[in-house]
Design a protein that fits this description.
127 residues
């Protein structure tokens, strides 16, 4: 299993995933140059899930929407988890617009167990 992650994703989370037997792969939103650009991923990358913060898929100052950034992920039916404090989920859904149903919002405090559950692993160690 491989979890692709956007820049800013917590190093402790990534370390815990590796300890759980999950590989990680840095991904770029297209303007930060952090890793492989989301628009270039293919099924051959074997990515099981993508995780990152909401601000990495949205750029208010330009004509770049979450749909633009996540298009390829949605096309290849890759699960996407975006970290947003739960109290802000309604606003996050508005920002995501038409792709809100293609994204799972997760509170940053609960992201590790949620990822492990999504990957079919036991999240009991992650609490």
């Amino acid at each position: 299993m491989i979890v692709g992650y956007l820049e800013g994703t917590d190093g402790q989370l990534l370390t815990n995933l590796v300890v759980e037997g999950v590989d990680t792969l840095p991904l770029s939103n297209g303007w930060d140059g952090h890793g492989k650009t989301l628009g270039h991923i293919t099924p051959s990358d074997n990515i099981s899930l993508i995780v990152g913060y909401l601000h990495k898929v949205f750029h208010r100052g330009q004509d770049v929407t979450a749909k633009d950034v996540l298009y390829n992920c949605i096309l290849h039916k890759l699960p996407i988890m975006l970290m947003v404090p739960e109290c802000n989920w309604d606003a996050a859904r508005e920002i995501l617009g038409e792709v809100q149903d293609d994204v799972t919002l997760v509170d940053p405090e609960n992201v590790l167990p949620e990822i492990l559950k999504k990957l079919g692993k036991d999240p009991s160690c992650a609490t």
